[in-house]
Amino acid sequence: MSIRHLLPGPVGFGAAPLGNMFRSLSDEEADATLRSAWDQGIRYFDTAPVYGAGLAETRLGAFLSGHDRADYVLSTKVGRLILDEFEEPATRELGEKGNLFQYGLPNRIRNDYGADATLRSIEDSLKRLRTDRLDIVWVHSVAQDFYGDEWIGRYEEARTGAFRVLTRLREEGVIKAWGLGVNKVEPLELTLDLDEPRPDAFLLAGRYTLLDHERALQRLLPAAAERGVDIVVGGPYSSGVLVGGSHFEYGEVPAAVVEKVKRITALAAEHGIPVKSAALQFVLAHPAVAAVVPGASRPGRIAEDLGALGRPVPQAFWQALREEGIVSGSAPLPLS
């Protein structure tokens, strides 16, 4: 029920930007970014078919094919099939995420969490990733932000389809672990309440960050820790807004978030630390969190992330965050 023994370190590589998220990325820049991650010791790579309609998997596979398969850990996701038909990426329906991958490939995407689709999705991913096996498989985005009021129906489709298939594949040794990869806590809370099937871990994006962590702290993280279900945190910079980006929740930044970011940035400057240090170290301080997977689309970002993780952060900074109400009183803080 734990994936800590699988993960080679506390920081992985989130491949969503390689699918041309927010901007068009050349193959050369994608390869250089991956090379930078590898050269600096990153050995866990997470991707998904929906990232650019197969583009991120294809780019990641091209890079990793030059390395020994035993030297890295690989995860991808199921729930979306990439078809040989075509559509206009800018008009693609991705729920609240809008045209997140408008610069991706034009292949049509079909949502399907059934058993047959799960097996086909894995087979297709293996081809794009140029590998013979996956270590971890996440059931992707079966939540409100993509499906609105229909999310419970989609969740039930996954429970009776993808969940059971992935449990069987784990038991057969085809994969080493599985779980859900979502941007909301409710599907994870629901899954923890099930007697069967039992996932090994969850990939939770954007819901345990300096900007948004109250809901996850209430029930999800304590329950996950109690059951030995690890949390991998995605989106530690809240779509980039924490570190100078122009997106929050993959869209426009609300005024209240702008003000909160200003307060965090000012406190970080006052204590002489990068905001990235605060963001990453806060996430990893929770005992339920096994790893964090920030995304990157430029080679220099990898060094920034790893450097930020090792940068000492004074206790006075964490205390200031607590006093200003930016960090919850129940959130574990890093030790000095």
Number of helices: 12
> How large a portion of the residues is in β-strands, by DSSP E?
5-15%
The string of secondary-structure elements, in order, is: EHEHEEEHEHHHEHEHEHHEHH
**Strand tally, please?**
10
Rounded to the nearest angstrom, the distance between the terminal CA atoms is 30 Å
Structural class: alpha/beta
- What is the strand arrangement across the widest sheet? 1-2-3-6-7-8-9-10
Look at the structure and give the mean pLDDT.
Answer: 94
Q: Rounded to an integer, what's the Rg over CA atoms?
A: 19 Å
Q: Segments where pLDDT lies below 50 for 5+ residues?
A: none
Q: What composes the largest sheet? A: 8 strands, parallel
> Looking at the structure, what is the overall shape?
globular
Proportion of helical residues: 25-40%
Describe this structure in words.
The chain has helices at residues 27-39, 55-64, 115-129, 144-147, 151-160, 162-171, 186-192, 214-227, 255-270, 275-284, 299-310, 315-323, and strands spanning 13-14, 44-46, 73-78, 80-86, 107-111, 136-140, 177-182, 201-205, 230-234, 289-293. With 336 residues, it is α/β, with parallel strands linked by helices. The mean pLDDT is 94. The chain contains 12 helices and 10 strands. Helix 1 (27-39) runs parallel beside helix 11 (299-310), helix 3 packs across helix 6 (162-171) and helix 10 (275-284) packs across helix 11. The relative contact order is 0.14. The longest helix is centred in the C-terminal third of the chain and has 16 residues, at 255-270. The strands form 2 sheets. It has an 8-stranded parallel β-sheet with strand order 1-2-3-6-7-8-9-10. Strands 4-5 form a two-stranded antiparallel sheet. The two termini are 30 Å apart.
